[in-house]
Amino acid sequence: MMTYSAPEFLVYPELQSTNTELKNLLAKNKLAEYSVIVTPHQTAGRGQVGNVWESELNKNLTFSLLLRPTFLAPHLQFYISKLVSMAIIETIKQIANIEAKIKWPNDIYINDKKAAGILIENSILGTKLDYSVVGIGLNVNQEIFISDAPNPISLWQLTNEHYNLEKLLERLLENIEHAYHQLEVNRLSLINNEYHNSLYRISGYHWFEDNKGKFEACIDHINEMGLLTLVDKEGQKREYAFKELKFVIND
């Protein structure tokens, strides 16, 4: 049995979206921090800006976690994405001995394929963050993907091994809690350095695409609000918010 000490650990046979269900419960009840909703079958999982997450029954991790980062100023909310991303890649390394990377802003990539996605929905109350609903989909034991998602990959496809989902979830929640504590004690420089060093395509020039077309550039930095700055081959800096930039794969 799971030993992770979530105040509420709710398992549903099927849900359209764990994030949506957690927010519905929040509207009715005051849930404690670290409450978790998990389902083996998420039928309409959501990604960033309406993207759909494919997940076969009983094959992957699909869950949502409640955090209450009231100590964090709203303009620093991207730190939640940073710490969750780092916890996922640390878990993949521990469980499967695979080096994963963080594709800005919060996809988890192994080589040039997507192993996990994160959807964080924050609520602001006055001048503080009230809560964060952290939705995570991690491809674990799925052998075949049938949707039109461009580049999914599972741990099974990489290692030809099946993984215990309960143990994997417990380890991931423990790693998130550990990373979250670093944020609570204001170790922002440590988080920034680890996130930067874990970025997908952090070294060298790569192809990207914005509304003006494709270009080659290298990653310069990501600021505290999550904006990405690239430097192109002409030495010009280009700054992007979420969904303003596409990573060109295999160009």
Automatic annotation (TrEMBL):
Domain BPL/LPL catalytic as annotated: residue spans: 1-184
Name of the protein: Biotin--[acetyl-CoA-carboxylase] ligase
InterPro entries in UniProt: aa-tRNA-synth_II/BPL/LPL (IPR045864), Biotin_CoA_COase_ligase (IPR004408), BPL_LPL_catalytic (IPR004143)
GO terms for MF: biotin--[biotin carboxyl-carrier protein] ligase activity
Keyword Nucleus belongs to the record: no
CDD domains cross-referenced by the UniProt entry: BPL
Keywords: Coiled coil, Ligase
NCBIfam families: birA_ligase
Positions in coiled-coil regions: 155-193
Alphabetized PROSITE patterns for the sequence: BPL_LPL_CATALYTIC (PS51733)
EC number assigned by the record: 6.3.4.15
Organism of derivation: Carboxylicivirga marina
Pfam families given in the database record: BPL_LplA_LipB (PF03099)
EC primary class: ligase
